[in-house]
Specification:
Layout: H1 34-37, E1 42-49, H2 58-65, E2 72-77, E3 90-92, H3 98-113, E4 117-124, E5 128-129, H4 131-139, E6 148-150, E7 152-154, E8 163-165, E9 171-174, H5 175-181, H6 185-191, H7 197-209, E10 216-217, E11 220-221, E12 224-226, H8 239-242, E13 246-248, H9 253-286, E14 318-320, E15 324-325, E16 335-336, H10 339-360, E17 364-379, E18 383-396, E19 401-413, E20 431-437, H11 442-457, E21 463-471, H12 473-477, H13 486-498, E22 506-510, H14 516-525, E23 532-535, H15 544-553, E24 559-568, H16 571-574, E25 591-593, E26 601-604, H17 605-619, H18 631-638, E27 642-653, H19 666-678, H20 683-698
Parallel strand pairs: 1-2, 1-4, 2-3, 12-13, 20-21, 20-23, 21-22, 24-27
Antiparallel strand pairs: 4-9, 5-13, 6-9, 7-8, 10-11, 14-17, 15-16, 17-18, 18-19, 23-26, 24-25
Helix pairs in contact: 2-9, 3-7, 11-13, 17-18
Length: 699
């Protein structure tokens, strides 16, 4: 029937917001993350019960085999050993009595993690648990039930129905059960006598909650396997062993590692079989699509290669041999194959031979003579692609050998993408701008100060400015008669008059060689350790968008940020009187990102001081070394921080011919000259200029 009075419940109703005018208004405090506000819980918490005697042996083996698969894992012991293994979170309760340890552990888990996790898995250090299987199990169980799941065992001399979960094989408790159990733990400790902690806990759950241990729930089975003495894990072929979530007892570390190796092999075989089954299904289904069998991409199940829409989108292939790479990171045409690249090439050749032998044996057996040609490229849609021309020796079953060349194609697909955890940063941090000035920079200071006033002082952005006047020794001697920076000081005075609350301090330095590191040393000592510095150049045009990115990308004790500014080309060469930069539609045509410049940087003073201390210990009193270094080099070689180097469209610099100081190191001078040359114009603009010049000369 139609919607009648009985269907009212299903009609959406808008509930108007109403606030009682008599009650004081209370601001709602919003949480930082949606997950917190919606009350999401993490899925699984794992507790491992260990002891002083086994924490450095079996517990370490547990940590090395399964800990990295679980999101959160803690070790609980009665007494702490003198040396706690690295990378393990250990909670010591101060008493080795088994029942006391279980009682304290349950209390600790409830107090610290009870509100954060849905499932609690408790195991011993002589248990081998298949981490991925345990994680898969909890994804298939409903969190609305009180769950006590494990290997169900009868109580000694107890009744028929009641069961407890054997601690050696691990057991799973739901959050709801833990919350209900907590108020009764004290009563259980006082009233229930037992020798075994797992039996004590089982009795406590039955007596006070009426819940017994089960080995299967909601169609999910908790499979276990009891190891006999002198078991050889590699020879275990039983289905019961292969399906086990937990294996017990594990007597020593070596056995734990052997079990892990065997179960990893079983998991790998299952995964390969599953891949084959899925590939077969994809082939069968693709045949029914409009594209037919031609629609099957290779390898089956992996994204098709990227199809470029224009010649600018074509992904280049890099050529390599077994000894050399012909597209090098530093831009040179040929370099030695080493490190990760060498290992990559070796592994790919090995894999190609393995695949060929698997396909053609026993009829043919291949061995490599030589890699004739190698090509590789990274396709962001699917992974690393390889094409190899191999010179192979093929041996038949009768022993006849034959040399042949074969071309093979391989793909190393992109696997599961991981999100790297980053510390939380805020956009409210104050930025301290530092601007070093030499006599050559005087023509550009006015524009810098105008942009600073317009984009930070007028908008009340939380940013301060410190100027660094770098005097040549000759100018420093005459400063009482003629101050070369008098004009800049007058401009600063004007700004301070216009903005009453603003103070722009300056520091005067006398040096022939304005080394970036030496200048930064002076500034660093005059500011608190938690200062966020933005080291600018006189051509930098400050804006709020970039300052916010500076705040977000520089993370104390974690990351420093070196933006690559956008450098506009020489308008005389680019436009040749035709059109101006402002009317240009293609922004990127008018310039390039200057990879040779490291003048701008965002970092915390504390990070700079830490790296600078390490540098000082390394160079001792050889201060001349600092003249060949920039702040970037200090962080690169003397800090363990992430160096984030990225193109920054928010930093645009007008074209100017920079003056390069020949007193600086050869590399810094060469980089400055290169920056000037590449900043003239693009290849096409330079070609046009040359063409016009030749035309003019020929007429």
């Amino acid at each position: 029937g139609g919607p009648g009075p009985g269907h009212e419940d299903f009609r959406p109703r808008i509930v108007p917001y109403y606030r009682d005018p008599n009650k004081p208004y209370k601001k709602v405090l919003r949480t930082r993350y949606i997950q917190t506000e919606l009350g999401f819980h993490e899925r699984l918490f794992v507790a491992v019960l260990t002891s002083k005697a086994t924490v450095n042996t079996l517990a370490v083996a547990v940590n090395k085999t399964v800990a990295h698969h679980f999101p959160r894992l803690l070790y609980f012991t009665g007494l702490r050993s003198a040396k706690v293994p690295h990378g393990m979170v250990l909670v010591a309760h101060g008493d080795e009595r088994p029942i006391w340890l279980m009682y304290e552990t349950m209390n600790y888990i409830h107090q610290h993690f009870g509100s954060d996790y849905d499932w609690f898995y408790i195991m011993q250090d002589d248990t081998y648990a298949q981490a991925e299987q345990v994680k898969a199990l909890v994804t298939h169980l409903s969190i609305n039930q009180d769950v006590y799941l494990g290997r169900a065992e009868e109580f000694i001399g107890g009744d028929e129905q009641a069961r407890y979960c054997h601690g050696g094989f691990g057991y799973l408790l739901s959050r709801s059960l833990l919350l209900k159990l907590h108020p009764h733990l004290d009563s259980c400790r006082n009233e229930i006598l037992s020798v075994r902690p797992d039996e004590w806990l089982g009795r406590c759950i039955i007596d006070f909650l009426g819940i017994t241990c089960v080995s299967q729930l909601q169609g999910q089975h908790y499979h276990t396997y009891e190891l006999a003495k002198n078991t050889e894990p590699e020879k275990e072929e039983e289905e019961e062993f292969q399906a086990a979530l937990a294996v017990h007892p594990v007597s020593d570390m070596t056995l734990m590692y052997r079990l892990h190796k065997q179960f990893s092999r079983i998991q790998l075989d299952r995964a390969y079989q599953e891949i084959q089954d899925l590939q077969m299904q994809i082939r069968n289904l693709t045949a029914l699509t409009p594209a037919g069998e031609a629609g099957v991409t290779w390898p089956v199940g992996i994204n098709a290669p990227f199809l470029p829409k224009s010649r600018f989108e074509v992904i280049n292939w890099d050529y390599f041999t077994e000894q050399h790479l012909f597209s090098c990171p530093d831009g040179s045409p040929k370099c030695e194959l080493s490190g990760a690249s060498k290992a990559d090439v070796g592994e790919i050749i090995e894999s190609a031979l393995e695949q060929l032998n698997r396909r053609y044996q026993p009829l043919l057996r291949f061995s490599k003579r030589q890699l004739l040609n190698g090509y590789r490229r990274f396709d962001p849609t699917r992974g690393m692609e390889y094409t190899l021309d191999l010179l192979l020796e093929a041996v038949t079953q009768k022993g006849h050998s034959h040399v042949l060349a074969k071309r093979v194609s391989l793909v190393r697909p992109l696997s599961k993408v991981e999100i790297i955890p980053m510390p939380y940063v805020t956009e409210a941090t104050r930025v301290q701008l530092v601007l070093p000035l030499t006599v050559q920079d005087l023509d550009y200071v006015a524009n810098f100060l105008d942009m600073f006033a317009m984009n930070t002082l007028d908008t009340h952005d939380n940013a301060l400015l410190t100027l660094l006047f770098v005097y040549h020794p000759y100018d420093a001697q005459r400063v009482s008669q003629v101050d070369v920076f008098a004009g800049v000081k007058a401009m600063v005075g004007e700004l301070e008059k216009r903005y009453a609350e603003v103070k722009i301090p300056w520091i005067s330095v006398k040096t022939e060689v304005p080394s970036q590191v030496k200048l930064m040393d002076i500034v660093s000592k005059k500011h608190p350790v938690d200062t966020l510095f933005f080291l600018a150049s006189v051509w930098t045009e400050i804006n709020m968008e970039f300052l916010n990115r500076c705040r977000m990308n520089a993370i104390s004790n974690w990351q420093v940020f070196f933006p690559v500014h956008f450098q506009e080309f020489n308008p005389v060469l680019v436009y040749r009187g035709e059109q101006t930069a402002s009317s240009s539609t293609d922004f990127l045509r008018d310039g390039h990102f200057d990879r040779h410049s490291f003048a701008e940087a965002c970092f915390y003073n504390s990070d700079y001081m830490t790296a600078r201390t390490k540098l000082a210990a390394d160079i001792l009193d050889r201060d001349e070394v600092l003249e060949s270094m920039e702040v970037f080099d200090v962080f690169l070689h003397y800090s363990g921080l992430h160096l984030f180097r990225a193109v920054e469209p928010g930093l645009v610099q007008k074209y100017t011919l920079r003056s390069c100081n020949p007193r600086l190191s050869e590399e810094l001078y060469h980089r400055c000259v290169l920056s000037n040359l590449e900043g003239l114009a693009s290849r096409s603009h330079l070609a046009m200029a040359l063409f016009e010049q030749e035309q003019a000369n020929s007429t």
